[in-house]
Amino acid sequence: MAGVRLGRSTKRVPLALCAKVTLVVLLGIGFIVIRHTFSSSSSAAEVYSQRGSFDDIFDPETSPVAKEEDESKKRNPSSLPKDGNENGSPEKEMKEGEIEEKVAAAAKNETREAEGHQEKGRKEGEEKAVVEGLEEVVGEERGIDEDMEDGVDVNTEEEKVDEERSGANGKKKNKKKKKLGPLFDPGARYNWKLCGGGHGHNYIPCVYMEGGRRHHERSCPQIPLMCLVSLPQEYRPPLPWPARESKIFYKDVAHPKLSAFIKTQSWLNLSEEFLLFPREESEYKGEAQHYVNSIEKMAPDIEWGKNIRVVLDIGCTSASFGATLVEKDVITLSLGFMNDQIDLAQLALERGIPAMVGNLGSRRLPFPSGVFDVIHCGECNIPWQSSGGRLLLEMNRILRPGGYFIISTKHGDINRGEGMSTLMASICWNILAHKTDEVSEVGVRIYQTPASNDIYELRRTKEPPFCKEDDKIDAAWYTPIKSCLHKVPAAIERHGTDWPEEWPKRLETFPEWLGDSREKLTADHEHWKAIINKSYLNGMGIDWSHIRNIMDMKAIYGGFAAALSSQKVWVMNVVPVHSPNTLPVIYERGLLGIYHDWCEPFSTYPRSYDLLHADHLFSRLKNRCKQPVVVVVEMDRILRPGGWSIIRDKLEILNSLETILKSLHWEIRMTYAKDKEGIICAQKTTWRP
Questions:
Q1: pTM of the model as a whole
Q2: Is the alpha carbon torsion for 660, 663, 665, 671 positive or negative?
Q3: Mean of the pLDDT values across residues 366-392?
Q4: Are the C-beta atoms of residues 336 and 357 closer than 8 Å to each other?
Q5: Strand ranges, E, within 158-292
């Protein structure tokens, strides 16, 4: 028995030891598991908190990358942290489960909506056009640095208002950005009517007053324009280019003062239904071609179409100067005055010649500094020396350093006495040539602006004074002209330090002052070349032989216009005043452009453009315009019947926009959607209420 007990005793010892060892191991493993679990839960909760706060940190309008990440999380609920649910309380598990189900449901709805738009786009594309490369067209907006998205507003008056709102201590208040609602009221119903007040079919809202009188300077209606401009009787679309350059349909532009003016001019002939512009006739005797060539002979450095590419023509008579330069690869913008009762700028636009309506008064012209190669003033009767030469100082601001100022007149001395000579000397403009041409019978003077600041040291007087260093030289939206002289840019990062490359090389040559942006400009250039060639030119059903005047309503680097340079078109590149100031880049490339605020009407005549292009314009209007629909009304005003509009934006905006366009009886020629981005191609009809 003792042996048996001893045997049993010896067997129990190792069993007890094993049990103890096993218990210790299990406790250790449990401790490790619990520690790892709590650590993972804390980490996951931290990540979820960070991602959930993206809407507070990033403005979805200004950070497409952040929005893309946030939207991808909403569309993919499986990316939400799982550990928080596995180790949380039952109540928390239920709430997060409900959230997950709601997100999944929302994702399904979004997917169905996107698929519906894609299907609609495919059907309409099959019926009306063969669309290629649209995947690139509807991609995210590109070309602007994320740290530049807040923009450089060139409207100094708005900056002053912002400063007043910032508080008495001068520090800006840090307000959380509100989540913006839909751009257009989804419940709105539009009942359009024609504009009254006797404005007629040539109504320019910021020029005309009640009764047909005109403002001396731009002054827009306080109440947003929500009416449609009427059409001329028996309106007909312009002829294809280049036929339209020499003849237009008279009834499209007819009015009594023009009819009386035609009878006094040899360069205008009325023949049945057409208004003719004979090439052998112009305001210059011996044809405009002789006048243009004589200027080049007077100043050999002026090589039209090579050294000289971008020209501003002050005053708009026959526009023969700009029309002649078209053949020499020079793009000339004619500035028609607001008080021109004949509306000669409208004739230029109808002919397919770049023109705008403005005024030389108390405000700066809506252009950046140092961008025009040449400024021309033919038959010039402008009092440049009045008000201390303020208008000439504005010409000095927008002329490129080393640029040319050409002035001609038929009557009297161009210098207008000692006052003009003294003024030119005070701003150190050098006279290159002075000659009275025997054929054209006009006296011509050619001046050149300083290319460096060295010559300013030789000034005898300090009048006019130099502008202050903190003066924003590119501020040009409702900005008063200052009676001061701007120095030539000296820093390498400033535009205007060097003359651009010869045309057409300058279109794709990006100067050193652009710095790191040169790579982005190259990418932007290639991006738009692909879009234009793959889809815009061939895939939308647009007859480009009838397209001449084009507007890019939200240009960045001019990539859209540059990609169309081989076509027989010209593009007005509009840089909104609340966007980054990229307009100097556009001019550096040899293209035209202007500053504008789309909450106001544009300074041009009705039916000025054949095609409007809007790339993410509307998504940038949130919190800016009181009634964003007025932008669509303005598009209807400045686009001719039969003209086209290509609009690229977010689907949530395009859905409402399509409804508005249909209420205007525009024909939706094509729609396409992909990944919450889309495109609409629409054509305006002759419908009027």
A1: 0.78
A2: positive
A3: 92
A4: yes
A5: 247-249, 269-271, 274-276
